[in-house]
Amino acid sequence: MNAITAHSSQLTAHNSQLTTHNSQLTTHNSQLTTHNSQLTTHADYVIGRVFCQALKQAFSRFCEEVFYVGFRSEVA
Predict the structure, then answer these.
(1) What span, in angstroms and rounded, lies between the C-alpha atoms of 64 and 58?
(2) According to the model, what pLDDT value does residue 69 have?
(3) For residues 66 and 19, which has the higher predicted lDDT (pLDDT)?
(4) Torsion, CA 31, CA 34, CA 40, CA 41, rounded to 10
(5) Kindly report the CA angle at 22 between 37 and 27, in degrees rounded to 5?
(6) Distance of CA 74 to the CA centre of its chain
(7) How many CA atoms are closer than 13 Å to the CA of 7, on its beta-carbon side?
(8) Per-residue pLDDT for 71 more than 80?
(9) Residue 4 or 70, more confident
(10) Handedness of CA 67, 69, 71, 73 (dihedral sign)
(11) Most confidently modeled of 9-18, 50-59, 60-69?
């Protein structure tokens, strides 16, 4: 019986360690999820500000070229 009691005690201790480890993993997963959300938000900001700004500038240059050529043609 002592061997069974000792083994039961070891299993209980191991179960407790697994529960603690599971809790730590859950916390870490939550932190990673939060970090992922922050990175996504930052990426959205960069895309919205940098790339959209570049597209606006390119479109503006395109319009200037088109209208300038059109205006120049009408004047000549």
Answers:
(1) 10
(2) 66
(3) 19
(4) -140
(5) 30
(6) 52
(7) 4
(8) no
(9) 4
(10) negative
(11) 9-18
